[in-house]
Amino acid sequence: MGTQSKTGNDPREHKFGSSTPLTIGVEEELLLVDEGCGLVAEGGRVLERIDDEHKQSVSTEIFATQIEVKTGVCLDATQAVKELAGVRRAVAGTGARLMGSGIYPAESGEPQLIEKARYESVKKDLASLLATPPCALHVHVGVPDPETAVAVANAMRHHLPLLAALTANSPFRDGADSGLASARAAAVRSYPRFELPRAFRDYEDFLRVADQLIAAAGVSDYTYVWWDVRPHPNLGTVEVRGMDVAPRPEENAAIAALIQALAAKEIDRPGAPGLAREAIEESYFQAERYGLEARLMVAESTAAPAPEVARGTLEEARPYAADLGGEGALEEIERIIAEGNGADRQRRIHREHGMEALLSDLAERTRV
């Protein structure tokens, strides 16, 4: 794939099957704030000060006001929560304060970017689109081979609208209500290669599309293709990306447990509804606009309220979650259905107590 071999990210040299199938990894993009909950550009400093044990578990992002914390390969959600909490404590040990929100709710000011070779082409391409740091949740699921990776990624596309409705956590942007449950999703939709991919016939079809897109974008490898779900050959996983991050690691790990169980179901009993890409895309927008009040596509010509879709999906996933040790984590999903998602909570706190209280609540709930 041309320049890909130079970067070590050639998808033809994949690592599928290199770890136990259906293990998970969780990545949280989190904001960096000061004691007054204002954004601070300390990503580089955190990376310099983090202890040796956690250096591989923290990385900078293109915005200096955010970092990514990540687990290793985990068997289940319980292990993921433990690892995420440990990394967060290590970050706090550098003097940093974290905030979990899809976008910073108050005015974010001029964007401050990290100087790093990987980001130079991104800065050039995105220009003024890089306005405020979007913070997503990424979940990896290990799969045994390339064809299974494509099958699971194809199927997971149908679940993205529900996952977006459950995780929506960014209604405010620049101090005002955006009218959306996820302003983060709207922001990244303006970026190139941030989209719902089409279904692929097989792994060769994925490679062909990746080749062409890399050439069209003038980038070095497939890791610059930021689809909302994608095979990740270099890690041997399917990566689900189209979700807002939550403040609490338990919430993020619960979503990972749901994704893990749905991947297991697809491997065991293939049966995605086969919706057109355009229908999934519209359902996806409805989730990002209305959150748990959205109506989501569940079958051809059939939509249902998001809570109803969520309950049906949980029932489908539960036996697989039980086998994988993640059934207890699904209780967190039930809580979200009953009490509302992060966007609902942000609006409620802002309505009752104002922006300062909202920022404080987000930072306090992110602390472990």
Q: What radius of gyration results from the CA coordinates?
A: 19 Å
Report the portion of residues in β strands.
5-15%
Task: Look up the CATH topology.
Answer: Creatine Kinase, Chain A, domain 2
Helical stretch count? Answer: 14
The secondary-structure element order is HEHEEHEHEHHEEHHEEHHEEHHHH
CATH class: Alpha Beta
Count of separate structural domains: 1
CATH architectural category: 2-Layer Sandwich
Share in helix: 40-55%
Mean residue pLDDT: 94
Unreliable residue stretches:
1-7
Q: How many strands in all?
A: 11
Major sheet size, sense and barrel closure:
7 strands, antiparallel
Structural class: alpha+beta
Keywords:
368 residues; alpha+beta; Creatine Kinase, Chain A, domain 2; 7-stranded antiparallel sheet; 45% helix; 14% strand; globular
Write the layout of secondary structure elements.
Blueprint: H1 4-7, E1 24-33, H2 43-49, E2 58-60, E3 66-70, H3 77-92, E4 97-99, H4 117-126, E5 136-142, H5 146-156, H6 160-167, E6 172-173, E7 176-177, H7 183-188, H8 203-217, E8 229-232, E9 237-244, H9 249-268, H10 277-290, E10 295-299, E11 302-305, H11 306-324, H12 330-339, H13 342-353, H14 355-366
Antiparallel strand pairs: 1-3, 1-4, 1-5, 2-3, 5-9, 6-7, 8-9, 10-11
Characterization of the model:
The chain is an alpha+beta fold. The chain has a single domain, classed as 2-Layer Sandwich (Creatine Kinase, Chain A, domain 2). Helices cover 45% and strands 14% of the residues. The protein is built from 14 helices and 11 strands. It has helices at residues 4-7, 43-49, 77-92, 117-126, 146-156, 160-167, 183-188, 203-217, 249-268, 277-290, 306-324, 330-339, 342-353, 355-366, and strands spanning 24-33, 58-60, 66-70, 97-99, 136-142, 172-173, 176-177, 229-232, 237-244, 295-299, 302-305. The strands form 3 sheets. Strands 1, 2, 3, 4, 5, 8 and 9 form a 7-stranded antiparallel beta sheet that branches. Strands 6-7 form a two-stranded antiparallel ribbon. A two-stranded antiparallel ribbon has the order 10-11. The protein is globular and about 50 Å long.
